[in-house]
Design goal:
InterPro entries: UCP032086
Radius of gyration: 20 Å
Number of helices: 7
Organism: Asticcacaulis machinosus
Keywords: Membrane, Transmembrane, Transmembrane helix
Strand content: under 5%
Number of strands: 0
Distance between the termini: 39 Å
Protein name: Urate oxidase N-terminal domain-containing protein
Order of helices and strands: HHHHHHH
């Protein structure tokens, strides 16, 4: 067991095997077996898995890295900007991508994607569509956050971290831009998570 824990890849593989055992067990003992509802469950699991990584890294950047960076001695900052930040940003942007793919896939599989994205107006709004309006708000907040990650934060971070050549002034401006849009995503994250989590509890 210690050999597994000493290697991240081995740990993840073992964790995935355990998860697959749990997933298969759930399918074998669910009312419908390995039916469409089972597929919905797998998509929800993937959506939550990638979402935890995405939002977790968002909070890491804002609660830890950006807050502590001014206190780090200048000679130690390259360790963060050249090694830690680029690696974290890789997982950050791709977890955002797969969160959105799994979430939209789940909404499509469950048949409410058009109603949710139109806030219940796709088929003519009625009071019964109000829950879909709420989940639609959550979906649009997540899509805005996803757009910020790929089209604002990541391009700005490429400049700020020196991955893309730029002047010192451009790097400073890009760093501020990345920080502000990352803070926008923090601002949007709590209402987005409130809708996503409570919708499933209250309306299924």
């Amino acid at each position: 067991m210690l050999k597994i824990l000493n290697n991240l890849t081995a740990t993840l593989i073992f964790s995935l095997v355990l998860a697959i055992i749990m997933i298969v067990g759930l399918g074998m003992h669910s009312a419908g077996g390995f039916d469409l509802i089972f597929l919905h469950g797998v998509l929800r699991w993937l959506h939550v898995l990638f979402g935890i990584m995405w939002v977790g890294l968002l909070y890491y950047f804002n609660f830890v890295q950006m807050r502590v960076m001014p206190e780090i001695p200048a000679e130690m900052k390259p360790a963060v900007t050249k090694y830690i930040a680029p690696e974290a940003l890789f997982w950050f942007r791709y977890s955002a991508l797969f969160t959105v793919i799994a979430g939209l896939g789940l909404a499509w599989a469950r048949g409410y994607i058009a109603e949710a994205l139109s806030f219940g107006f796709a088929g003519g709004f009625s009071p019964a569509d109000l829950p879909l309006a709420f989940i639609g708000i959550g979906m649009w907040l997540a899509l805005i956050m996803f757009f910020n990650v790929w089209h604002v934060i990541w391009p700005a971070q490429r400049i700020a971290l020196g991955i893309r050549e730029a002047t010192p002034e451009a790097k400073a401006a890009a760093s501020v831009k990345a920080m502000r849009f990352s803070r926008i995503n923090v601002l949007l994250s709590l209402p987005m998570l409130a809708v996503m989590a409570m919708y499933q509890t209250l309306f299924g």
